[in-house]
Amino acid sequence: MMLCRRFNLLKHPTAAAIRHISDEEHFQNLSKKQQNPRAATPKAPLSNLGPCLDLIKKHDYEHYLCILISPAMSRRSLSALRAFNVEVSKAAITPYSTPQEREINKLKLMWWRQVVEGREVAGSPIASELRTAMTQRNLSKGFLLRLIDARLTPVRYTSLHDVERAADDTFSAVNYLTMEVLGNKSVETDHAASHLGRCEGLVALIRSLPLLASRGVCLVPSTTLAKCGVSQEEIIRRQGEEKIQDVVHDIASSAHVHADHCEKLMSTLPLSAKHGLLPIIPAKLFLKRLEKYDFNIFHDRVLVRPPTLFFRVAFESKKLNIAANIENLKKLKTINERRKKKG
Description:
This protein is mostly helical and 343 residues long. 73% of the residues lie in helices and 0% in strands. The chain is built from 17 helices and no strands. The chain has helices at residues 2-11, 13-35, 49-59, 61-69, 72-90, 99-116, 125-137, 141-149, 160-169, 171-181, 187-214, 222-228, 232-236, 241-266, 271-276, 280-292, 309-342. α4 (61-69) runs parallel beside α17 and α9 packs across α11. The longest helix has 34 residues, at 309-342. The protein is globular and about 80 Å long. It starts with a helix and ends with a helix.
């Protein structure tokens, strides 16, 4: 029944998500008015949510699915956060950016910095949603600013540790903010979010190889290239297939390590925190698909999105909810038994 309802949400995602969140906010506002009739929290118009979801669906589909399955009370703030991340990612200054693109993107990033620091926003639904999320969820400005600053300089990696440090400033920073939206601020949740971010960063590096090669760019760390006996030029020209597969295998192995650490830590975290770590599922599915094709990132099928992705993520989410319900029933049973003994 739950999967059917979520399938309908996926079929008409933007309208359904807006309608679902609208219902949640109606009851939330009703409860606040009953407690304090004069209390009113300024909110961005609900129509701003549509552009956020559309942007995420187009540029970050895996996290878009995770948002649809996330707790309804947090879904709007998560949409604002992910849409902001897409916007600053699109404005990133890259090694292949032209001088004109660098100047334009720098101005865009400076504008987003002003939005985060409190500038009045008008005409930008994503900026308006972000400001609302910052106010309602008390999001850390430091993490938001880190996301912007990380995109101001073209990246160059010497080792995989450099890739992981860059991932901490981008992917992990978004994950820390996701935990804040879900109401989980602790050392344990941040540790798991960090491993997830590093895994996502390494996966993103692997996925980017074909696109960057077509633009004459290779971001594989120099130590990894030396270890596998391959040059940047060979990767760009797709020469030496076996050596390139060794390079991809080396990066994927590090991603697997972080994915395993994240999954181990998930078992000790509360349910809401586990929902924030659901992106580990599409990341691991990609790594498995990569292994299936012998780490040949240039194979036609490796980067194709599996048609069952949504159902895999939804199934894992349902398992988490069932496990949480069982745990709550056990706690209630224990409480009732204690009351009977006292009585």
